[in-house]
Amino acid sequence: MSGKNNASVGSRLLDLVRSNAVPIMFIIICAIFIPMSGLSNSYLINEIVTRMGRNLFLVLCLLFPIMAGMGLNFAMTLGAMGAELAIIFVADLQIWGIPGVVLAMILSIPFSAVLGWICGNILNMAKGREMITGYILNFFMGNGVYMMVVLYIMGSIIPIAHASIMLPRGYGIRNTVSLLHMRQCLDDLLAIRVKGVKIPVLTFILIGLLCLFIVWFRRTKLGQDMRAVGQDMEVARAAGIKVDRTRLISIIMSTVFAGFGMVIYLQNMGNLPTYTGHSQIGMFCIAALLIGGASVEKASIGNAFLGVILFHLMFIVAPGAGAYITEDTMVGEYFRVFLSYGVITVALIMYEAKKRMVKSKAGQELAEAQVRAGKEAAK
Amino acid sequence: MRSKRRMLFPALTVLILVVIAAWMLVIGRGHEIYLDNKTLEGYQGQDYKAFERVVVTVKDKQVAKLGKRERGAAIWIGQDFKMTLEITEKKGDEPVVKEVSIKLPYDMDGIIINLPAYLAGLPEEAWLTEFVPAPEEPEEEELPGEGDVFGMEGDLGLEGELDAGDM
Prior knowledge:
The complex is a heterodimer. Chain A is mostly helical.
């Protein structure tokens, strides 16, 4: 009896390890790297808290498309672009501080919503291939449309008043737009210090509100519809759910929230890298979510929190650890980029392998059942 | 009735957002304010002498300690600029503290305020001027999509030039 119990505990433990392989792997990596990096605990905590405030909102916005079965929204970058356009206008209007942040968030809504609508419609035409389509769409919009608007149309057709943000040639926006008067205004407003660690309370309140919204939204009719669509599109359609509309809404919501998240991110950074700001955002947010134990079809708020902590902890300690191991600081720098891309690859491979395993297991069970039924019929 | 109600909610949301945005535009306008402690000469035939020393405090933070012919700077969000001045008119005088509130013009980014002229109660044209930054030397910026992004150095990646002999 106890042997049976031990076996079931062992298999349960194995299942637990198997289903949380990615976060466990990163916890081990971080545990090894932290002492190697030589960074103090207070420094690490300070950095992690800052990066949580900066990135969590962006990572959380990835949950909506996953809920609707659309996988990881690589096109969340479109929301980031919408926010960047809004920030450029706010910088040109010289609106500073908290009003600047609020105005940028409001202005980002139409940009993000329109981009999200375009993206959602395209993804509806590419059902089953949403991630790769989103990824390529992100290139098309980011390296094509966005760059054309910011580099050529702004200043020539769209009026830009301030020379400080415009290129010397008279049109186009500079490589970097200073957000000095907006820098960390949200983080500093209700900030408290606990043993030297600055906690940006207001930013965390906003993140908390988004979490509450997600929890509430899951229970609404639309949230239930999204989950139904995510589980099985055909069954959802048969149940009278407008599948395409539901998927479109999930992408628009994700893009609009990504816009808000990008404004929070940029106010923390204090400057806008006009042409590169959005390019890595999607990749890093997706990597963080996957490290937190999420998969293409299942993600939770807990995954987002754990992922941001682990991913950024690795990001902070990797250069130091790399330098310690190889005595070359550049290796650490490459190492963290390698890990962030690698984790996406590994997680996607693991997801696909698991999916195939489940499928083949189901096929085997079906075949066995058919053989059994055949034997019984022969008897 | 139901469709009207369904339309009302988004319309109301948009309206609220527009109102908030407009409000932010008004209360969030940032200005750079330059405070001059310089003699204003010959305004309507009269000179307004610079003070011996002026200590400027904005939002409980000392931003400038100005001697004669000196300039200080402060940043301000909104149009109602408030500051506290601790003025020592002449050497050996006791400093006098004054609370000052100035309505700033919305359309100016940088504003120069001449303190002696302002405190003498002169009209706005005498103490307020727009700060126009000196034109900068245009600097070259490497923009995305410009230059040799693929590292081909103009030869499309081919080593050496092709000529008929290679064919």
